[in-house]
Amino acid sequence: TGTTALPTTDDLRTRARASLRHVGASIPEGGDFRARSPITGEDLFGLGAATAADAEDAVAAAREAFLTWRTTPAPRRGELVRRLGELLRDHQSDLADLITVEAGKIRSEALGEAQEMIDICDFAVGLSRQLYGRTIASERPGHRLAETWHPLGVVGVISAFNFPAAVWSWNTAVALVCGDTVVWKPSELTPLISLACAALLARAARDTGAPRDVHRLLLGDSAVGERLVDDPRVALVSATGSTRMGREVGPRVAARFGRSLLELGGNNAAVVAPSADLDLAVQSIVFAAAGTAGQRCTTLRRLLVHRDIAGTLVSRLTAAYTKLPIGDPFDENTLVGPLISAAALDGMRDALARVQAQGGEILAGGDRRLADAAPRAAYVEPVLVRVEEQTDVVRRETFAPILYVLTYETLEEAITLHNDVPQGLSSSIFTRDQREAEYFLSAEGSDCGIANVNIGTSGAEIGGAFGGEKETGGGRESGSDAWRAYMRPATNTINYSGRLALAQNVSFL
Ligand code: NAD
């Protein structure tokens, strides 16, 4: 069940160089900021990171570009995003290669991430003609009351390693059609794919005559991100990552009355009811829990199974878990690639040790793989753990493929357990009983930003708004009307009556 030889670090360097060349990006080599690959766990290139002066320059340039961009008609702004979408289509395979090299995603998921970028561009192009405001019934004769949406300013995008390109595209495609300009601080773990995205957008700007500085990239660690957080010229900070990060970023942006859009950790659960289609449930659960090596914000981390079917479901999951092919993500037979780092493996082992001390029982998986072939990489078997209750470890997000299995008797009990975690991102129920499904989706059901029926917690489409409640941060990105976070509404009262009529019948003079 393991795949064969891993590529060498030199192979990975060659691939990365080729993809970057194809998209027209150069590698700013020579610094001591490292690009690395989780496939071997080794460094690929030393890069130059952004200095304080670079950050200052980027924000100033993006602010300057905003002054032109905000008055460019939105459908024309859409032309930039349409061109970006075309370039992303042309280079889908190169982008997927870089995502695999840097984030360790298997081929089909890396192509899927690049597809998501293409999809959001299509969506944003349509949106560029649909930034609708409303006309509101005025209480006064001869008056019109309206709402107008204006561009907001510079958007600072801070992104996580696990969707190193898609999260940027959700923010950037929408921000650009809304008339904003963008400064991007990607994860320090994924600089190369960021260089590729920035190069394609720069080309799209050249091709369509948009200002060059509608987008700027700043490579570096959290200190570079903090510059965006504290800069009053950055109107919106859209930050994706851990709840720990959001706890630092949210209050700092609020302290300067900036806006933030936070997309933070999840601790997603699925309820499996007695009437569930178990074939469908098993397939969905394994993808949601073990896919992306458990490193999606929407990864399934808790399974709440009705006690009448727990035995059957657990034995089917155990069988599926022991067959998962783990190894080189470029190998088309592989389903589970590496964890991002040795630190992630340590975090997983620590959680497993703690949960076992609290009475948890490992049902399948948990062993390290390929330690001889790649001692600095972190390949691990996705693990299934039976727990009796939601202890502190179960209620925390461990960013690794651990699925905790609990049983329930009544749906009310399942929903109580479901909602009894600090996070509120994604959720699902497997049932053929419509009353149960509707109850789960109702106001007294799942408290998450995403609630699904008969499909897993992960793998959202871009057309819906994406995000979650509680410690997940409350932000919404991507489709639906998430665009409103990137604009500022103005309420307009227009008096065409020729007389002054004060609201609420106030009389004066
Ligand atoms: P992370 O929090 O370590 O880093 C995310 C980004 O924040 C990086 O670019 C980092 O440099 C930056 N950062 C960290 N501290 C900062 C600070 N004080 N000021 C400014 N920037 C700072 O997260 P990660 O390990 O890259 O990603 C995994 C986490 O992201 C998981 O918790 C996952 O659930 C979450 N995530 C959430 C979503 C979502 O949409 N809700 C999507 C993807 C990932």
Automatic annotation (TrEMBL):
Coiled coil: none
Pfam family, one: Aldedh
TM helices/strands, residue ranges: none
Recorded superkingdom: Bacteria
PROSITE patterns to which the protein is assigned, alphabetical: ALDEHYDE_DEHYDR_GLU
Keyword line: NAD, Oxidoreductase
SUPFAM superfamilies per UniProt: ALDH-like
InterPro entries in the record: Ald_DH/histidinol_DH, Ald_DH_C, Ald_DH_CS_GLU, Ald_DH_N, Aldehyde_DH_dom, ALDH7A1-like
The EC number(s) this enzyme carries: 1.2.1.3
Active site: 263
Domain Aldehyde dehydrogenase: 32-489
Tagged with keyword Manganese: no
Similarity annotation: Belongs to the aldehyde dehydrogenase family.
Subunit description: Homotetramer.
Protein's name according to its UniProt entry: aldehyde dehydrogenase (NAD(+))
Organism: Streptomyces longisporoflavus
